[in-house]
Structures are given as C-alpha cells and as structure tokens.
Amino acid sequence: MATTTPSSVSVPPTEASTCYDPLAARPEAAKRDPIEYIVQFNAPETHYVDVAAHVPTDGAATVELMLPVWTPGSYMLREYARNIEGAAASTAEGSVLPMVKTAKNRWRVTTNGAKTVLVRYRVYGHELTVRNNWIERDFALLNGAATFMTVVGGDPRPHDVRVVPHRGWKKTVTALPTHPDGSSLRFRAPNFDVLVDSPIISGGELLVQEFEAAGKRHIVATQGGGGVWDAERYIADVQKIVATEHAFWGTVPYAQFAFINILNDTGGGGLEHGSSTVLMGNRWASRDRDDYTGWLSVVAHEFFHTWNVKRLRPIALGPFDYERENHTPSLWIVEGVTSYYDDLFVHRAGITTRDEYLKHMSKNIERLQSGPGRKVQALDASSFDAWIKFYRPDENSNNATISYYTKGAVVAWLLDLEIRKASDNAKSLDDVMRAAYARYSGKCGYTEDEFRALISETAGTDMSTWLARAVSSTQELEYEAALAWVGLRFKAPTPPKKGEGVASGDPWMGAELGWLGAELKTDNGRNVVKSVLRDSPAFLAGLNVDDELIAINQLRVRAGDVEARLKRYHAGDEVELLVARREEIKRLPAKLSVKPAVPYELEVIADADPVVVARRDAWLAGKTTK
C-alpha cells in the first residue's frame, strides 16, 4: 500500500503561446462571422429541443463539427452525443449537403462551396442534474456542452443564440451577454468557452428576483418553489453571502451574475460558471434550519468558484479540451479549499452561529476519518483520478478512495490554522487565495508546484513537508496542535453500551455492543450486503457484497432486522453468519468487535487563555494581526 504519490500526478505547464482566458473576449474573434444557433421548444413534453446552427465555412470544402464529451466543473466523460438525433445539413437555401458522422462526437459536412451551412439536429434532455439538459412541459434547462455543436479546431469566433420559448413560457434567464442588436432573447457569446459556460433556463413559472451588489446586477431565478419556498428570506441571505465573498476577494470580475435555482424533492447539487451557477435542492429546505443552512453552503460554494477555478484555475483547466479528460492534481484546491470556505462564509455572513459552523466542520472530519480509503488514496491522487474513480463510485469506493471535497476541506482548514500559527496570526489561507488570484488568474493558471510555493511564501516558512504529508501521502492528518492553537478540542467519545436500566451486577451492565461492519439493504424481502468496511469483522469473515444474510447463529433474520439482532450481542462474541451467495449456502464464522468510536466532534475549550480565544475569534471572522 503506497503512502505517497510521486510526480506521476503532476501536469507540465502549458506553453505560453497556447494560454488564453476562456472567459475573455479576444479582438481577433470579434472580427469573424459568428456561428448562429436557434433553439426551439416545439414539443417540450417529449423532452426534445430543436437546434438549428448556421455555420460559416470560411471557404473550406468540408467542415468538421464536434459536441463536447464533458462539461467543465464535472470531471467525467458524459458522452453528450448519445442524446443527438437527426443531424442533417443543407445550404441556407435548402439544398441537402452530405453529413457523415466520423467519431462518437464528430460530424463532417461537405460544403459544396457554400459560404454557410445549416445544421439541424434534435437533443433529448431528461436528466434533472446541474450538468445535463432537462426539457419538459413547464420549463427547460440547457447546458451548453450538452447542446451546441461547434467547429473542430477553428479559430475563435462569436457564437450567437436565439431562444424561441414554448408558448406560455414567459421568462428566460442566462448569463450570456445580450446580442449587440439588442433583440429580445438573442444572445452573443464571444467564444465557444463562454457559450459552454452559460446555461439557459426558460419556463412559464420562473420566479425572477434581482438585487444590486458592488454596482452589479444579480438575478435569482427559481423554478419549483411550490408555494413552500421562502424566496424573500433566501434572497436576503444570498445578498449577505455575495457581500461577504466580494469583501474577501476585493474584486468583482463579472458584469452581471445569475443564480439559477431548480427546487425539487429528488436531488441536489450545484455547478459553477463564470457569471452564473445552477443549483438544485429541496423546495422544503427553507422550513428546516439544518437543511436551509446546508443549502446556503452550496450557494456560497458555487459562488466562490466564480473566482476559484473559473478565473483562478489549475493550468490543466483552460484552455479546455472538450473531447478528452483534462487531468490535474489540484482539485483539492479547486474543490477542497472551496468546500472549506462554503460553511465558513455562511458563518462570516452572520447566518450561522459559531457552534453551527463547528458542527459542520466536525461532520467533514468524521466523514474523512471514518473512511478506510484515507489510508489508501492520497489527496492529490484523488484529484488526478477523479475522471475514473470519484465520479464512478462502487461498493468498494469507501475502502479505496477519498473525496477531494471532504479531505480537501479538512486539509484547507488545517492549512489555514498552520499558516496563521507560522506567521503569528499575521497571514492566513485567505491571503494565499488573494495572492494567487492576483498572480495567476486569467490567461495561464497555476501549476501545483507554483501554488504550493505561494503557500510557503505567504506563511514565511517552508511548508513543503507539511503539504507533502497532508496532500501527497496517506499518513493521518495531525489535529491536536492546530486545535489547541485556537482553543478547540475533540469531545471524548462514548462507545455505545448495553445495560441501561438493568440491575447492578447484571452481565449486560456496561457491555459494549457488537459490531459487524457491513452495510445492508432490503431487496425483495432479503437482507443483501451493500458494502463491507475494510478490516471490519465482516471483512475478516469473508462476507461479500451481494451476499444475502439469512441467519445469525442459526436463527433467521427477517428483512431489515439485522441491526436490531446485532444489538443482542456483545463485542467479542463469536457468531456464525448463514449467507446465500449466487444461490449457494455458506457459513461464515465472525467475531464481533466494538464499533470504532468517532472522536471528531469539535468543542470550544471554555477556559482557554484570552490570547487563544482572540486567535479563534480572528480565524472565524477572517481577520489577522497584520
């Protein structure tokens, strides 16, 4: 089991000649004829959008078109071309042109000398996620990567979009700039990157609210509130988060910003864009304190990405290669650091209390420390392999991998405290992020080595050994010194015990509960093993995923009753598991153990020295002594 990740996960710098800011307009592009798209929702109840693309040929005999296979911010090949139907080409006058598919996501059009070719196709959209298309009778969400073909390897040019809403759809929201001619529902992206980066929502029941911050227009478009979503409370809290993050960065890099909220009861998440974000959550969240503050953390997370990744980015993430993986070891910075700041900004905005923030941080630490995968996969390796592991979890993922969101947030928190400690509270991770933005945002981005060097520079001491341990190894993180420096500690764990209410001297008095270490699910009245934790009693006994657990010690276990049955046993008891594996009956001896205690609930040291209390207060408020 390797404990370090060598330079095999490093990414060489991009040649300076190929660097450009994907979100910036380039003068040479504006001089070229645009690709012009018309998107129509003729029958949205069928989950289709019709797209017509007028593509300049620049006099070429053939034009090669492609559709991206992934979208920035979601690091997995999505194969969007699987949803394309009926692709065909013609001249502007209607003469049919040969169009041949040349790869999974490419098409070649023979121009026959036409100055412009018209390409028509339909896109199926029925995946209600932030990274796909969703089209239905009431509204549609279009993501650029899943919708728009463009010319392969062509010189940069504008990409125009005209939206033709379905009848009754009164509102359309996107961060795309309005077309220069001022036409309603016509937009112009200065290049394909901006088009991909600007989702579009259109519908009949969109609630659109606006506010101004730092002199910039902010749009909040909400679909699906269902009469239970507290829109006024939400927009007030969004304004607090926006103001807090503006103050943190000290710069506002967009002309306007759109929060696109889709509320449902089936899922959640968010995806960042340069001047907008798409958020999905539960419409009932504003009726529950924990759910609501959790939702606001997603808002703070995605808004923080406006700076951290959309403009300050690893060198591998722009210019983008939309047809293959863009590997980087630095997603711990992109997502982990952002995951550290999301809950913290909700607190700094005055929305959550100190104890609520510490509760969120405790959960992150518990998630990390309770996963055996932390001993197998390093943080930067988790980032590099996101394309094949993080977004493709299976029953063994908890044993073999870690989340660069979760461990990244914990490492960022410890790093913040370490920088403060090394600089006598004169500097912090806040200063690292602002310095990185000033130095590396824009054209080329940063390498992993450059970002690590900036951390040492800001701290005023060599942090390379600390970073190697925390980021590039599977060694356990060190908490105690950092916690003590700001007057925090972990509460002492209390193992679950039996015996409450029994007579003194009873053998059950104080006995620790037996633990198996397998997660089960009910499937058609059967107890089926869903996952097995590494080194647990179940793991050592040879219990397998998909085994059906029939009996314990020759006594039948009904569906859903395994946990209750195990409470009848002590830690240390030896039991026999009767299982069915591929229709064969097997008997597996197992020795139950004590469920590992989780000593990761943070608490404030009540009698801490006033100097320590001052440090803690400064950290939580984002202040230093400089």
Using brief descriptors, characterize the structure shown.
single chain, 626 residues, alpha+beta, Immunoglobulin-like, Neutral Protease, domain 2, Pdz3 Domain, 3 domains, 7-stranded mixed sheet, 5-stranded mixed sheet, 17 helices, 27% helix, disordered N terminus
Overview of this protein structure:
With 626 residues, the chain is α+β, with helices and mostly antiparallel strands. The chain has three domains: 24-205, Immunoglobulin-like, CATH 2.60.40.3650; 231-489, Neutral Protease Domain 2 (Neutral Protease, domain 2, Orthogonal Bundle); 514-594, Roll (Pdz3 Domain), CATH 2.30.42. It is 27% helix and 25% strand. The protein is built from 17 helices and 30 strands. It has a seven-stranded mixed sheet with strand order 5-4-8-2-1-12-14. A hairpin with a 7-residue loop joins strand 1 and strand 2 (48-56).
Report mean pLDDT, rounded to a whole number. Answer: 93
| Integer-rounded radius of gyration | 27 Å
Q: What is the C-level CATH assignment of the largest domain?
A: Mainly Alpha
Largest sheet: 7 strands, mixed
Low-confidence stretches: 1-17, 500-506
CATH superfamily of the largest domain: Neutral Protease Domain 2
What would the principal axes of the Cα set say about the shape? globular
Structural class, from secondary structure content?
A: alpha+beta
What is the number of domains?
3
SS field, number of helical segments: 17
- In CATH, the topology of the largest domain is named Neutral Protease, domain 2
Strand content: 15-25%
Q: Span from first to last CA? A: 44 Å
